[in-house]
């Protein structure tokens, strides 16, 4: 990080950039008349060491500074309903001086057009991708609900599959191995079974009554289903679920796969459904239905986690299981230096958390920093979702070997076990939409912090990178498919009109138009016959193409975010409902700034005559 700031002032805009070659701030006035340059100097402020001053905002807010920050006591809401807390403002006296030199004279529409073009050019020259370009990439941060990062005072992070990403084949594969070993000890026939991570994807739903795994659309209608390890036909899905909707409130029946931790459990259950159907489950285990089988799988995995064998193996060889991200610590460092108070809130215990964070963070941090230096507060064994729902006892971790003592108040810099989100809010003197929480579990992390506390939320879903790339690769396939569907719609519309004309003719009524009425019977029948054959052949072509849509992501289930060609999946509906922003990994924040204003995209409606998306002019 640079220790000094260059402040370039031009009659039309500011350019703020690090000066890597100087230990003291320097200023340049590259253009303008002498009078303009003299006026321009009145806008300059002495910017001290950015680190010691706590960032640019803290430095420039002092006496003689150009800028001021909007505090929470004076914050308002802007035209998009977002808090203006943390916004940087030009002080009135400097703003007036700037206007007097005529730098911003004229209609704002013309000025904005010039500034936008110059800003785009400058970003390109500096080698910095603009936010729109980043968003249109696998590493983008996508916005469901407008979020102003400037108004966020604290950012909380989950650890597992959020700050720490595991190799799914390694982590879930070993969880599967331990779970299957426990099932074998219980008497289940598992010897010939192997872990298959492609069998399931996040966002599917287990039907514990029928032994099925299903994919539902945003309304809960089931679009694809698998019984055991065999995919069901469209006809079978319609017969089984034609009158049913997925209702996640009915927890006794439906189990939503919220996270990658669900992969091993789902694979085990679906494989054992096959064993149960084939009559291979010993009678000594008692009369088992699919619900009983699901409970047995859950018990086996619970034993694997409680006995600690899996986590001990990971702690002994983290390089086998953890995929470090060198950019991640730097992204958090930017946020901390921008004045955000960072929190780690994880359900993992202290020893495991410390080992994983040391491995994934310390070697990538500058100036002998360690992972604890990034966080204002660390909460282990948080017991989410209860952490967001109700008070729980708080303990302070006081020694390196994890010794704890009861504690009644959380303080900045502390390391704690248990507690509650309300304690955190009280300690930070922040609440509600001043706090952003980032996690990978839709229910435990995102839904509950949103529903109970109205915290702002971000979901981490690594699979979106693969899905984004799969969508790009399948563009030609989708384009050809849509073209065929559109052709069928046109042909079908004509067929329907001729069919209606024929129907009216049978009841001695005129057709829709004089021309249709005047068609002879043979011409009408011949035209309908030809069109019907074309549509049937189109169906033969379209049906397998629809089945293949999304297979570059997963051959069985298609895309994570889609349920069919046009509609959103149940997972996407959950994301839109509970996650303000979502992205594939935390380090993607590095491609934005800690002051980013994330704006949700236009949500088109069925009756919209056109889109209002911005286009080049």
Automatic annotation (TrEMBL):
<dbReference type="InterPro" id="IPR023214">
    <property type="entry name" value="HAD_sf"/>
</dbReference>
<comment type="similarity">
    <text>Belongs to the 5'(3')-deoxyribonucleotidase family.</text>
</comment>
<dbReference type="GO" id="GO:0046872">
    <property type="term" value="F:metal ion binding"/>
</dbReference>
<dbReference type="InterPro" id="IPR008380">
    <property type="entry name" value="HAD-SF_hydro_IG_5-nucl"/>
</dbReference>
<keyword id="KW-0479">Metal-binding</keyword>
<dbReference type="Pfam" id="PF05761">
    <property type="entry name" value="5_nucleotid"/>
</dbReference>
<dbReference type="GO" id="GO:0008253">
    <property type="term" value="F:5'-nucleotidase activity"/>
</dbReference>
<dbReference type="InterPro" id="IPR036412">
    <property type="entry name" value="HAD-like_sf"/>
</dbReference>
<keyword id="KW-0378">Hydrolase</keyword>
<keyword id="KW-0460">Magnesium</keyword>
<protein>
    <recommendedName>
        <fullName>5'-nucleotidase</fullName>
    </recommendedName>
</protein>
């Amino acid at each position: 990080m640079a220790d000094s700031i260059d402040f370039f002032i031009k009659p039309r805009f500011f350019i703020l950039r690090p000066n890597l070659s100087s230990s003291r701030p320097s200023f340049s006035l590259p253009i303008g008349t002498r009078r303009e340059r003299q006026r321009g100097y009145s806008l300059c402020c002495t910017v001290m060491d950015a680190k010691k001053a706590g960032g640019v905002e803290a430095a420039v807010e002092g006496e003689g500074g150009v800028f001021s920050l909007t505090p929470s006591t004076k914050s308002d809401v802007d035209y998009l309903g977002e808090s203006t807390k943390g916004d940087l403002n030009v002080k009135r006296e400097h703003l007036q001086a700037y206007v007097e030199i005529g730098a911003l004279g004229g209609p704002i529409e013309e000025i904005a057009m010039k500034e936008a073009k110059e800003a785009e050019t400058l970003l390109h020259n500096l080698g910095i991708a603009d936010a729109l370009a980043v968003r249109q990439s696998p590493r983008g941060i996508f916005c469901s609900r407008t979020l102003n990062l400037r108004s966020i005072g604290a950012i909380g992070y989950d650890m597992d599959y959020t700050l720490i990403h595991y190799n799914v084949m390694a982590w879930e594969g070993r969880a599967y191995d331990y779970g299957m070993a426990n099932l074998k000890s219980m008497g289940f026939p598992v010897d010939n079974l192997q872990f298959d991570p492609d069998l399931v994807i996040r966002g599917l739903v287990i039907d514990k009554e029928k032994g099925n795994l299903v994919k539902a659309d945003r309304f809960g209608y089931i679009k694809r289903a698998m019984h055991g390890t065999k995919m069901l036909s469209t006809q079978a899905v319609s017969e089984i679920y034609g009158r049913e909707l997925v209702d996640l409130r009915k927890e006794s029946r439906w189990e939503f796969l919220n996270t990658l931790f669900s992969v091993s459990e789902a694979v085990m259950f679906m494989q054992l459904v096959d064993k149960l159907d084939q009559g291979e489950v010993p009678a000594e285990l008692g009369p088992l239905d699919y619900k009983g089988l699901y409970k047995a799988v859950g018990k086996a995995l619970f034993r694997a986690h409680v006995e600690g064998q899996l986590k001990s193996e990971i702690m002994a060889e983290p390089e086998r299981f953890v995929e470090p991200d060198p950019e991640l610590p730097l992204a958090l460092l930017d946020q901390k230096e921008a004045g955000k108070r960072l929190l780690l809130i994880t359900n993992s215990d202290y020893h495991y958390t410390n080992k994983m964070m040391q491995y994934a963070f310390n070697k990538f941090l500058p100036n002998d920093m360690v992972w604890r230096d990034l966080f204002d507060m660390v909460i282990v064994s948080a017991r989410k979702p209860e952490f967001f729902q109700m008070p729980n006892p708080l303990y302070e971790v006081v020694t390196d070997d994890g010794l704890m003592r009861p504690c009644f108040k959380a303080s900045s810099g502390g390391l704690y076990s248990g507690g509650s989100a309300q304690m955190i809010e009280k300690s930070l003197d922040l609440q509600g939409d001043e706090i952003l929480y980032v996690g990978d579990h839709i229910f435990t992390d995102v839904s509950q912090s949103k529903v109970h506390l109205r915290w702002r939320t971000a979901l981490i879903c690594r699979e979106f990178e693969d899905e984004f790339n799969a969508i790009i690769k399948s563009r030609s396939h989708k384009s050809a498919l849509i073209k065929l569907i559109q052709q069928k719609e046109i042909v079908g519309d004509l067929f329907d009109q001729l069919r209606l004309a024929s129907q009216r003719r049978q009841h001695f009524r005129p057709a829709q138009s004089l021309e249709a009425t005047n068609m002879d019977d043979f011409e009408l029948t011949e035209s309908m016959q030809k069109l019907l054959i074309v549509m049937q052949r189109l169906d033969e072509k379209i049906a397998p193409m629809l089945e293949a849509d999304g297979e570059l992501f997963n051959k069985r289930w298609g895309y994570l975010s889609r349920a069919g060609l046009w509609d959103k999946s149940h997972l996407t509906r959950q994301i839109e409902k509970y996650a303000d922003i979502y992205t594939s990994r935390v380090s993607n924040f590095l491609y934005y700034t800690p002051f980013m204003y994330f704006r949700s995209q236009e949500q088109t409606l069925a009756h919209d005559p056109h889109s209002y998306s911005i286009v080049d002019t």
